């Protein structure tokens, strides 16, 4: 299902622990209670989903004469593979979500360092700096603040790089899992939507329609939600890492010290050389373009399946000709 590369996962955990320690030394809160609460909420949501799946199976797909405890056992056993897969998905989501919060904390720290505002734009700050220089009002306090900002920028640069490396390690570890999710969702959604189309346009009684359509709609909603949530957290984390570059560029002012500007230049070069992009084993990037392409591909195959299902082949010669043409096309 995914690569059992334990050393890579241990290295990612070690990088996270190191970055957490550095952020704590800088005075940034770790929000451990919030992380634990989010984990509990994820487990509760997953438990509620599986209870809903089991109840749907027991109510619509198993006979009413079967004992209730047998229904519950059979309904729960049906979703054991799905529970295992979803557990891996939730673990990947939590790691990426955790990194997103760390990037957000770094960006919040950089925003507190911004001194250029609407009331105090850059050109006014430069004029004030020139006036203070001519009047010789530059004191030791300004030098101390400038050196402190340079040290802070250096620490943020190192933590940012560690978070990028951690995200790449986790992405490589769960890359096969993400690819499996995508292929599974693509195939399942295509066939499920096709079956839903057949059910909608079939002459079924109300009870049979509900017994066929309700579980199918629940499965489609579950798989679509899982794919969208995983893709969304990857997009959000990439955007948080990208926003750091915008904030660093805003901090580059002529009124700052040379050491501070040198740290900013190194930081920008580091971000250019180490962009954060989440992929599925390198086959495609997890972004909004991927969702648009997946929806378009599912729609295309769905239309093809609907058109093919409405063709009635009555002559064996026509069937043989169609099969020959398909074989030649595939070759």
Label the structural class: mainly alpha
How many beta-strand elements?
Answer: 0
What percentage of amino acids are in beta strands? under 5%
Rg computed from alpha carbons, rounded to a whole number of angstroms: 28 Å
Task: Output the number of helix runs.
Answer: 11
Q: What's the shape?
A: elongated
Point out poorly predicted stretches.
122-147, 312-331
Distance between the termini: 31 Å
Biggest sheet features: none
Average pLDDT works out at: 76
As a percent range, the share of helical residues equals over 70%
Strand and helix order: HHHHHHHHHHH
Describe the structure.
- The chain has eleven helices and no strands.
- It has 331 residues and is mainly alpha-helical.
- Helix 6 runs parallel beside helix 9.
- The longest helix is centred in the C-terminal third of the chain and has 46 residues.
- The chain is elongated, with a radius of gyration of 28 Å.
- The chain starts with 5 loop residues before the first helix and ends with a helix.
- 17% of the residues are buried.
Topology record:
Elements: H1 6-25, H2 32-61, H3 68-78, H4 80-113, H5 122-134, H6 140-173, H7 175-200, H8 206-251, H9 258-273, H10 288-309, H11 316-330
List the main descriptive attributes of the protein structure presented here.
81% helix; elongated; disordered C terminus
Overview in brief:
The chain has 331 residues and is mainly alpha-helical.
């Amino acid at each position: 299902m995914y690569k059992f590369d334990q050393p890579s996962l241990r290295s990612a955990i070690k990088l996270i622990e190191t970055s957490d320690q550095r952020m704590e030394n800088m005075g940034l809160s770790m929000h451990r209670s919030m992380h634990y609460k989010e984990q509990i909420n994820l487990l509760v949501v997953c438990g509620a989903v599986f209870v809903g799946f089991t109840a749907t199976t027991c109510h619509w797909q198993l006979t009413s004469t079967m004992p209730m405890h047998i229904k519950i056992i059979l309904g729960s056993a049906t979703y054991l593979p799905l529970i295992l897969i979803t557990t891996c998905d939730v673990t990947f989501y939590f790691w990426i979500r955790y990194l997103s919060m760390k990037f957000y904390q770094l960006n919040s720290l950089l925003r507190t360092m911004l001194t250029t505002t609407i009331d105090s734009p850059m050109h006014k700050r430069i004029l004030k700096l020139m006036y203070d220089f001519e009047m010789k009002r530059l004191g030791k306090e300004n030098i101390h603040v400038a050196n402190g900002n340079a040290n802070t920028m250096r620490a943020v640069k190192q933590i940012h790089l560690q978070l990028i490396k951690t995200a790449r390690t986790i992405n490589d570890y769960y890359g096969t899992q993400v690819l499996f999710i995508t292929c599974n969702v693509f195939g399942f959604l295509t066939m499920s939507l096709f079956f839903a189309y057949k059910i909608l346009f079939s002459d079924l009684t109300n009870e049979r329609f509900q017994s066929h359509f309700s579980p199918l709609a629940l499965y489609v909603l579950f798989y679509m939600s899982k794919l969208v949530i995983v893709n969304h957290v990857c997009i959000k984390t990439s955007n948080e890492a990208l926003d750091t570059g915008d904030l660093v560029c805003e901090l580059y002012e002529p009124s700052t010290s040379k050491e501070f500007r040198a740290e900013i230049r190194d930081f920008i070069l580091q971000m250019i050389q180490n962009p954060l992009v989440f992929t599925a084993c390198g086959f495609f990037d997890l972004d909004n373009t991927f969702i648009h392409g997946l929806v378009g591909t599912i729609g295309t195959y769905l239309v093809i399946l609907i058109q093919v299902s409405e063709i009635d082949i009555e002559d064996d010669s026509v069937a043989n000709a169609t099969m020959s043409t398909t074989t030649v096309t595939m070759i």
